TrEMBL record:
It comes from Paralvinella palmiformis. Residues 38-109 form the BAAT/Acyl-CoA thioester hydrolase C-terminal domain. Gene3D superfamilies: alpha/beta hydrolase. This is BAAT/Acyl-CoA thioester hydrolase C-terminal domain-containing protein. GO terms for molecular function: fatty acyl-CoA hydrolase activity. PANTHER family: ACYL-COENZYME A THIOESTERASE 1-LIKE, ACYL-COENZYME A THIOESTERASE-RELATED. One of its GO terms (biological process) is fatty acid metabolic process. SUPFAM superfamilies: alpha/beta-Hydrolases.
Length: 120
C-alpha cells in the first residue's frame, strides 16, 4: 500500500522506489522489501554497506546474505565493507557515545574495537 502511494505521487520518478535502513533498520528494510512482489521476483538491486569493525552486527551476517543471494543465482547486489569503521556510518562525527547497552547480551557493546580500547 505504501509503495503504491509513493508510485502514485507526482514528485516520484517512477518506477524508482527504494528502502533504506540503518543498523537493525537495515534488516527490517530487507524484511519489508521481501513483501514487495517486484523484490520477490528479483527485479531490484541491492546495495549493502557494512562497517568492517562493527561490534554490534558483524560483517559476516551481510556476507552470509550475499552467499544466499549467490546460492539463488542472484547477482543484483553490491557489497561495500568499510575497513576499520564502527557500527554507525552516518552522519559525520558519530557515534556521539562509545557504546550502547545490548539488553539481549546483558552488556555494553562498543561501536568499534578502537573505541573499546579507549574505554578500557
Amino acid at each position: 500500500e505504501g509503495i503504491q502511494y509513493l508510485l502514485g505521487h507526482p514528485r516520484v520518478r517512477k518506477p524508482f522506489v527504494g528502502i533504506i535502513g540503518v543498523s537493525k533498520g537495515g534488516e527490517l528494510a530487507l524484511l519489508i522489501s521481501s513483501l514487495c512482489h517486484q523484490v520477490e521476483r528479483g527485479q531490484c538491486d541491492y546495495l549493502l554497506i557494512h562497517a568492517g569493525d562493527d561490534q554490534q552486527l558483524p560483517p559476516t551476517l551481510t556476507e552470509r546474505l550475499c552467499k544466499r543471494l549467490r546460492d539463488h543465482h542472484k547477482s543484483n547486489y553490491r557489497l561495500l565493507v568499510y575497513p576499520g569503521a564502527g557500527h554507525l556510518l552516518e552522519p559525520a562525527h558519530t557515534p556521539h557515545f562509545y557504546a550502547t547497552y545490548q539488553a539481549l547480551l546483558c552488556k555494553c557493546c562498543p561501536f568499534c574495537s578502537d573505541l573499546q580500547k579507549k574505554m578500557n
